[in-house]
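Page 47, continued from p. 46.
Same chain as before, 344 aa.
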Amino acid sequence: MTSRNLRLRRLSRATSALSGRKRGAQPKVVALGGGMGLSASLTALRRITGDLTAVVTVADDGGSSGRLREELGVLPPGDLRKALAALCGDDEWGQTWAQVIQHRFESKGELHGHAVGNLLIVSLWEQLGDHVQALDLVGKLLGAHGRVLPMSAVPLELQALVRGHDPERPEDVVTVRGQATVALTPGEVQSVHVVPADPPAVPEAVAAVLDADWVVLGPGSWFSSVIPHLLVPELLDALVLTKARKVLSLNLAPQPGETEGFSPQRHLEVLGRHAPKLALDVVLADEAAVPDRESLADAAKRLGAAVELAPVASPDGVPIHDPELLAAAYDRIFRMHGRIGPWR
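Result:
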């Protein structure tokens, strides 16, 4: 029996065990991603559900996270920290702790650039020897409105095949290594993969996807934060097998470097190439960021999805999502596109 068939059998048993559970009064939502894109989704989603889990990429190799990863051999904590900060409440306690864990030291020594939250998370990993238990404890300390989980139990190296990385050789395709390098690469990213090629998923992350009413993927850096979740085999199998509905939230603008010049529909096309068996239900896009609605609708249809256009960008013109507008869009999608259980 192949390793994929074994994974599917385990997932099927997990699904059967979950099928008889009693649904709550609100949707169970799992959000996948990393960095500021995931933070935007979490800040919006915590406004409309109290049953929220973030599944976070662990391929970061830059900044404080990269230094801790290299020195201590740990998972990069930075994106996990950002997710925890996004789940902090709007009250004084939540905002104080969000600022504390995001604080970076400024010095002429070894602490320069390190984030307090990164050091806290890594110290608890060393004390407890358990990634999930430590993150749950940090979330409890912060009063986080949800749970944060790493997508894999091992740190991953992101690698990309890039055409034209060297401007003097525009047709050559080379391998670019490292999330920080991929995110800013010149040239055109053709595809990405992770090393190791078959990384273990965190079991709690797989269970959360199987148990969800809705799974939210994106927004975020497309090749370095969104697609990597589809490269963890057990997690991808769970996304394919789950009965949860899936919404893909598109970015407000192409990202300099990895998606320079990408149209909204091209984002869908590259995602589909990396996970051809993954079907979606809804593609959410800002109505002002879609110049060709028909082409986007066609690309979404090939993934099994309908397009929802809504004003979700910050009114000040900066290409960032507005938490209240994004929350309203998610809430409308959750109500209008069906549900699994009587959560309202």
